[in-house]
Design brief:
Blueprint (H helix, E strand, L loop, with lengths): L1 H9 L12 H7 L2 E6 L2 E6 L2 H36 L5 H15 L25 E12 L2 E12 L3 E5 L6 H8 L7 E6 L5 E4 L13 H8 L4 H9 L17 H13 L5 E5 L7 H13 L3 E5 L3 H7 L2 E6 L2 E5 L3 H11 L3 H5 L16 H46 L2 H40 L2
Parallel strand pairs: 5-9, 5-10, 7-8, 8-9
Antiparallel strand pairs: 1-2, 3-4, 3-6, 10-11
Length: 453
């Protein structure tokens, strides 16, 4: 549904204003960001990724100006203190500087938004193989959801589990966590695998009369002082720690669930929609924590920005089957686009030198010449695609410069046209890069097989 809306809005001829925490969505569609922060509105040209860089530059610039002015004020006040009481020329200077300070427009101290502090440790590493499954059927009695012929997961992999609502993502995570059994097939966890599970429903927090502080002290060995300090890292400060679980907002429940997850020390994280209810800053912190995590992760999410940044594999549940794509989200999209093409385009056309009607025996010389021609064709195709990728990368870089210039100039019509062209070229680059990778692999495999003859 998001991709449909994304495609629809990308061809929308009018203007639109959208409010969203979906960073991938913002990256694809917008060419201006309005940020509301501490009662002020800041405007940034470009998409979300550009906004992040410009926002950091703005904050650094504000801090520099503030610190420079504070240093000037400090030195001026010191000069005034030492010389104001005298009756000479320096006293006159001190009085003049005092008037200058009184008229000086003070630069306010920059306010830095508070962020959660999240670090997920691994107490003990798992074995090399984390998970192995064969002939799985996942679901409930009389209601199977999907099947999977074979799965293998190695230590350190980060898997994004995607699929429509109701396809079985949460059920699969519950099965991995041992709360449900597979309907059929085998599912084995590897040596020393210890699971830390973040539930979408957060039912493990369903103790409505307990307070936030109660949850931490009951599930850890922290003292009350240590627990309050720990909760402060997740933005529970002051009397917030005495809030009852039943009074928490969705964002507060998510932050508390992440706090408890960080204490588990498991080496296999199972995360079910971990960015739900989190603001953008908290999503960024979670993303960094997942990137730095030393164990293995399987996470179900609709957050495509998180998936693109973190996943090394995509496991898609669709049409009652789990399919594995060994790459990030853009790789998955490219593969899906290729699979949607006619079979002849997916596999390439048969070489004119090949005749499959009946086997032929060729002399060694003719066979060698035939293989040389085949290799030359593969090499030419690989070089052609490599040049096409390079040309597209240069075109995209030029378009990005023109987009930035148009954004700063306020030329919104040109920016819309450039944005559409940028998306088109990015899609061409994705498909061409995949074709180049396949051509390079075919050439390498052909060369290896030729050496054995």
């Amino acid at each position: 549904a998001l991709e449909w809306l994304e495609e629809y809005l990308s061809h929308w001829k009018g203007a639109f204003i959208l409010v969203s925490h979906d960073r991938y969505f913002l990256d694809k569609l917008v060419h201006k960001i309005w940020e509301l922060e501490f009662g002020r509105l800041y405007e940034y040209p470009g998409n979300y990724s550009h906004y992040r860089a410009l926002r950091q530059e703005r904050l650094e610039r504000q801090w520099k100006l503030y610190e420079e002015q504070q240093e000037l004020i400090k030195k001026t006040e010191e000069f005034i203190r030492r010389n104001i009481a005298g009756g000479d020329f320096r006293a006159s200077q001190a009085q003049a500087r005092q008037k200058m300070l009184e008229k000086l427009e003070r630069i306010p101290k920059p306010i830095v938004p508070k962020k959660i502090h999240l670090w997920m440790d691994v107490k003990r590493p798992s074995g090399e193989r984390v998970l192995r499954a064969r002939d799985l059927i996942i679901g409930y009695p009389n209601a199977p959801l999907f099947h999977c012929k074979q799965l293998t997961l190695q230590r350190g992999e980060r898997v994004a589990l995607i699929g429509p609502n109701g396809s079985g993502k949460s059920t699969f995570l519950r099965t991995l966590a041992g709360e449900l059994r597979p309907l059929e097939g085998t599912l084995e966890l590897g040596y020393h695998v210890e699971i830390a599970y973040f539930r979408q429903s957060q039912t493990d927090l369903d103790t409505p009369d307990s307070t936030v502080l109660d949850v931490v002290t009951a599930n850890t060995d922290k003292t009350i002082s240590e627990a309050r300090s720990f909760l402060g890292q997740f933005l529970f400060s002051g009397d917030d720690v005495f809030k009852k679980i039943s009074e928490l907002s969705g964002g507060e429940r998510s932050r508390l669930a992440l706090a408890m997850l960080a204490q588990l020390g498991g080496n296999l994280l199972l995360l079910d929609e971990p960015t739900n209810h989190l603001d953008i800053d908290s999503r960024e912190v979670l993303q960094e924590a997942m990137r730095d995590y030393k164990g293995t992760i399987i996470f179900a999410s609709h957050d495509r920005y998180l998936i693109q940044a973190i996943a090394t594999q995509i496991w898609e549940i669709a049409d009652g089957e789990l399919k594995v794509y060994r790459g990030n989200y853009e790789y998955y999209r490219t593969q899906r686009a290729l699979l949607a093409q006619p079979p002849s385009l997916q596999r390439g056309t048969q070489s004119e030198d090949e005749d499959t009607s009946k086997p032929k025996r060729l002399s060694p010389g003719k066979e060698q010449r035939l293989r040389e021609r085949q290799r030359a064709k593969l090499a030419a195709r690989e070089a052609e695609l490599m040049n096409a990728v390079t040309a597209l990368e240069h075109q995209i870089a030029q378009i990005e410069k023109e987009m930035e210039a148009a954004s700063y100039a306020g030329d919104h019509q040109k920016l819309r046209e450039l944005t559409a062209l940028y998306r088109q070229k990015r899609q061409e680059l994705e498909i061409t890069s995949e074709q180049w990778a396949q051509a390079a692999e075919e050439l390498a495999n052909f060369s290896v097989s030729s050496q054995g003859l």
